[in-house]
Structures are given as structure tokens and as C-alpha cells.
Amino acid sequence: MATYLLKRLGMTVIVVLAVMTFLSLLVHLVPGDPVEIVLGPQATPAQVEVVRAEMGLDNPIPIQVWDFVVGALQGDLGLDFLSRTPVTQLIAQAIPHTVVLAITALALAALVGIPLGVYAARRQNSLADRAMALLSIGFITMPSYIAALLLLIVFAVQLDVLPAVGTGSFANPLDYAIHLVLPASALAITWIGYVARLVRTSMLSVLGSNYVRTSRAFGVRDRIIFYKWALKNAIIPTLAVLSSGLADLLGGAVLVEIIFSRPGLGRLTVEAISERNFPVVQGAVLVIALFYVLTNLLADLSYRLVDPRIRVEESAVGA
Amino acid sequence: MTDDGRIKNDPYLLEVDGLDVTYHSQGRALAALQDVTITARPGEIIGIVGESGCGKSTLSAALLGLLPPNGEVTGGRALYQGRDLFTLGPEERRRLRGTEISMVFQDPLTSLNPTLTIGSQMLDVLRAHSPARADRAEARRRIVEMLERVGIPDPAARLRSYPHEFSGGQRQRIMIAMALLLEPALLIADEVTSALDVTLEAQILQLLCDLRDERGTTILFITHDLGVVAQICDRVVVMYAGRTVEEAEVTELFDRPLHPYTEALLASVPSRRRRGSELPTIPGRVPSLAELPEGCAFANRCAHAEPCCGEQRPRYVEVTGQRVRCHLYDPESGHANLRQPSAATTGRKEQP
């Protein structure tokens, strides 16, 4: 386990460094002179030189990469071009909204998806199971922005029971939670479908396995077989999908944040891109990449906790 | 134990009589078992022999009450200690499983739950049959004792091991320990040694024999291996295409097979006497459940078949202590070459 942990952490570090390098080169990958794009056509050559020096673009490229990586590692992502606020501060303001949204959506996906899947597995091939299959596939194929618009129209406009835009304030948790309902549902809907299907399939594959037949032959109750054995095995793939889902949800939050006007990481990134605000884009994308890498790491480690066979294969390989 | 008079006079522990099991598949009814008749006395080891697909596994599922949802008992009865299993409700049948009738399966790797420790799986079995607040220490003691009995070294320390941490032979021992944990009177052993090498096979067979001798457990030993049958069984039931075709004491069956299928089966076992000559095989193949004939299922492969064989279902007739489902031995069948039991004798010694 220790060897594995070290290897896995080493890989993570390499990925993060590669992402940083790529981001620091981002400025040069966009066509045109970044400084002129930022300053616009009316800028004087003197102004261009000042900004170029300030952005460090007069340094050789390897130095630029080095400076960005070292800065990022020290928590310095530069200044916002327009407002001159540190990028880290902008990100720190945006992140809580996005993280709360993604985690709420994830929790919703698990809390609704798992019971739906269990129910469908319990009543395999019944009418309810078939109806659920149809519903799940509908959910999976529905993009979050469509779901967001539908939810907006129904609950915010026609029924007028939930707020349409904004986040409410953190100071008033109830208000904040109410503002969270529609965006989180919109974001979760695909994942509810996924999780329901996944749980059903994994449980049925366990229920058809030889060891379930064995325990039945020894008189173990179906209830125990179903909830203790089948569900435990179904949890592994579900954990896998959910933890990789967290990163996906953070990305998917972009559209939902725009539709619901939530000042999160997604909106920050999109606005920065449209303004060619490179330091903000770099910072925001770096944070999202870090989320991906870390959630994948956590996912890998969590399987190991749930499934003892993976631990052993690992130690056999590691030895 | 075949020469043990005590056993011969004991009442039957299990009496399967005319059992029919039908599978419903895509609107068709397939007869998986037809007229299966088996009796077992306490402490006997009954071999159930047949090719794959002959209904051996359906038989064990039916006895345990674990037929798949599309399978149904459509006729006959199975008396266990005088009670017909098929009239019991699902909860009554569940309570019998493990405590009265238990089972050991073929593949010990996939038959144990890979994500639970051995101790936890065995505890689940105990808990399934005793009140929820059963004494943990007592349960543990029973599990350790049982594991020790089947030959798992240092069982107390191995309770927290997972199935993949044991060897194949040990896993099968654990399966047997789980099956016998609640001291069932009837154990169904389904191809328990097929996945093991010969040395391990001998050890497991010895273990089953010893356990039978100690506890008087009746064992239905399902196998396709006649050599194993000869080693451990007291009596043998031969199945073909979902029907029982012959039943005999093990020595009688080998000395004097009555049914042409049994003869052919024995002839196809390699032996030293026939070394160098080509191994006889049975021509043709087992009919599929969808194309079972009206009459004898073996008729299309049988050297002695006559028109009556394909048309009339043979009766299960008693011939000098053996039972056989073949027109050759049924005087009322109208078969042209009726066999007298003595005519079929091949150098059989007179039993005392």
C-alpha cells in the first residue's frame, strides 16, 4: 500500500507540473500578440512594452514557465489585468459557490440514484423497473443546460416557488440552500440516471453470482444477501463513477452557473476567456485541473478501502 | 457401508418420487427433469452420475428450493423426513437450508464472497438460523471448531482472511465447513472435486467420508466421474436427459450395469485392461430439452433400440435389487429382445 501510495502521488505531481507548464504556455498558443489583444488597438508602443515586461513576456520561454510554476507553487497566480486584484483572491471568492454546487449535486445523485437503482434491482423486469430504465436514460441524455432551463421555467417562472438567479448569501444558510435547489438538480440529473443504472446493473450481477447462490443454499435471508452483499459490491463501481464525477460536475457547473447567474469558478473562467484575461484563465483552469487530479486520486484510494482484492493485487505487484 | 445392515433397514431420509421440473423459456415449456426418483437413507453416500446437461444441477436446486424464477416443480414429491418439501412455504424452506439440507458447490473460488472475510461469511450463515442476539463468542467458537475439523490450519487466525488468501483445496474445505456448520442431515455435493487436482481430490473425498462416518450425514454426490463414484459412493443413480435411468448399489452397477446407457458409460472409462485399443464413445449426442422424444430419451443412441423405445416412455422397473428405466427389462414393454437379469450378468460374484 505504501509503495502504491508513493507511486500514485508521484504520478499526481507529474501531472500537475505538466498542467502548469501547459498553462504558462497558453498565452503563446493563442494567435496574435497577447499584449496587444489585452490592450486593444489604441495602445502606444510604450504601454505595450510596460505591460509586456509586467507579464514577463520579454523573458525567454523557459524562464516564463519556471516563473509561473514557482509562483503557482507559492500560491501566487499573478494579478487580474483589469481589476488588479490577485487572481488567488478571485478564485478564493468563486470556489466555495462552485464546490458547494458540485458537492450538493453529487450528494443528490447518490441520495436519489442509489435508492432508485436498488429499487429497480429488487423488482427486476417489473413494470416499475422498465419505467425506471426509460427515465434513467432520459436523465442521462439530458444536458445540464436543458435541465436547467426546464427547471427554471417550471419552478421559478410558472410555479414561482424557487428563486431563479443568484446564490443568496452564505450568512443565511436557508436562503443559500434555497438558491441551490434548482442549479444542483439541473447538474445532478444526468448523474442520477447514471448512478441508478449502475447500481442496478452491479447489484444484479452480484445477485447472479455463484457466491450468492452459495449463501442462499445455506439459508441466508434474501434481505441480508441483497443489502449486505449485493449493495456492498455495487458500491465499488458507484464510488468510482461518483468520484470521477466530482471533477466532471465542477466542469459541468460552468453552464449551470451562467444560466443561474452564480458567481462561481465556471463563470469566472468564461468571463476571463472572453476578456482575454490570461492570468485569471490560467489560475481558474489550474484549480479545475487540480480538482480532477485530486478527485481521481481519492477515487483510486477509495476502491482500495472497499475492495480487499485490489489491495492484494497491488501488494503482489509492488513486492 | 453397503454391507451395513443397519442402514439398509433405516427409513428413508430423502425420497424423491416422480419429480418433474419444467423451465419456461420464450413461451415454451422445457422438461428439465422428468420422473426423477431417488431414495437416500441416513448416512448413505448416493452418487448421481450423468453427462453435463442431464439435470443434476436442476435436481439440487429443486431440492433446496432455489430453482430460478422460470423453473417450476410440475410434478412428483420430495419427502424429507416424511415431509414433502414442495408443500412448504418459502420461509420454511429457507429455514431448512443449511440446517437440514445443505450444499457444497463446484468452484470454491467463485462460490465464496470475495469481499467478505471467511469469518464474516460463516457468521452470516449462523445468524441466518439463530436469533439476532446469538452469542458472538459462542458463534466464533463453533466456526473455529468447524474450520479446524475440515483441516484449516490455525483457524482462529484465519477468520479475518479473505477467500483469495486461501489455496483452492483450502477454499473447498472452507465451503464444506460452511455447509456443515449447522450439522445438516443431508449434504448435496455438486462436482465438488472437479476443480481440484488429483491429490486434493483424494483429500476432499476422504474428508467427506470421514464427516459422514462421524455425523451420519447423508450425501448426494453429484459427479460425472465414475472413478470417484467407485471410491466413495454406496449407491449410484444414473441420470440421462433429465430422467433417472438406473439405480444400484455401487458394486452391482460396476459389475452388472443394466441400462444400455450405463453400459456405454462404463465402457467409455479408460482402463488398463483395454490399454492400446481405441476408447469406445457413445455415438450421437444427448437430445436437447426442446427435442426430447415421447419414449426413451436414449433410444436414438441405443444399440438395442426398437420402435417401442421411441414411442413409449419406459417404466422404472425393479430388477434384482436394481432399478432401471429400460424396455429391455420390462416384460410388458413388448421389446423383442427382452433381457433376463441373469443374461446381463458379466462375471458377477454372488452377494452373501
Molecular structure report:
The complex is a heterodimer of chains A (319) and B (352). Chain A is an all-alpha fold and 319 residues long. Chain A has 2 domains: 1-78 and 279-319, no CATH class; 93-274, MetI-like fold, CATH 1.10.3720. Chain A is built from 13 helices and no strands. In chain A, α10 packs antiparallel against α12 and α11 packs antiparallel against α12. The longest helix of chain A is centred in the last third of the chain and has 38 residues, at 222-259. With 352 residues, chain B is of the alpha/beta class. Helices cover 31% and strands 22% of the residues of chain B. Chain B has an 8-stranded mixed beta sheet with strand order 6-7-8-3-9-10-12-11, with helices on both faces. Chain B is globular and about 70 Å long. In chain B, 42% of the residues are buried. The A-B interface holds A 209-221, 224, 228-229, 232-233, 306-309, 312 and B 64, 66, 94-99, 102-103, 105, 107, 110-116, 121, 124-125, 127-129, 162, 164-165, 175, 178-179, 181-182.
Keywords:
heterodimer, A: 319 residues, mainly alpha, MetI-like fold, 2 domains, 13 helices, 80% helix, B: 352 residues, alpha/beta, four-stranded antiparallel beta sheet, 12 helices, 31% helix, disordered N terminus, disordered C terminus
Secondary-structure class of chain B = alpha/beta
Which runs of chain A of at least 5 residues are low in confidence (pLDDT < 50)? none
Biggest interface between protein chains, with counts per chain?
A-B, 23 and 33 residues
Largest sheet report of chain B: 8 strands, mixed
Q: Any idea what the shape of chain B is? A: globular
Residue-averaged pLDDT of chain B, rounded?
85
